[in-house]
Amino acid sequence: MKKIVLILVGLMPFFLMAQKSEYSRSSYLDEGIKAPNRHHIGEAWLNFLVAADDEFDQNITQATFSANSTLDWHKHTTAQIIIVLEGEGYYQEKGKDPIRMKKGDVIKCLKNTEHWHTSSKEKNVSYLAIYGKAPTIWTDKVTQEYYDQVAKKLKSKD
Questions:
Q1: Taking a C-beta distance cutoff of 8 angstroms, is the pair 127, 89 a contact?
Q2: DSSP code for 79
Q3: pTM
Q4: Own/partner pairs for 33-36, CB < 8 Å, 24+ apart?
Q5: Which of 63, 81, 92, 134 qualifies as a cystine partner to 98, CB 3.0-4.6 A?
């Protein structure tokens, strides 16, 4: 017993000098919080991985949408990068044809470009969205009817 106490007392300085964990950490494996249905129809979860601040001027948010969900038209005053982690979804910029986005895709949306992105009709989607400090500017609603037309159009291309 004396030996154990001596060993613990001898190791105490190492425990006291051990590196403290003051790192800011988050995980994209966490589901995040269920998003209120203000700018989408269906179910969505947001995991705010990195919040822009004085040291880092980009937000990194993981968004996960259940199948058959819509997201409204919006734009950002900075460019946005979307990295699809899992599943399939739709992406469209105003005035252009919609596309199907899938796992592994990286999409760059230029600043002030009105666009929308969400899950496909059949599958959930999870992606990282990287964008600047300024808040998202919400423009028009994506109605269920419009979303259904996009789904039908993309399905006929498959």
A1: yes
A2: -
A3: 0.81
A4: none
A5: 92
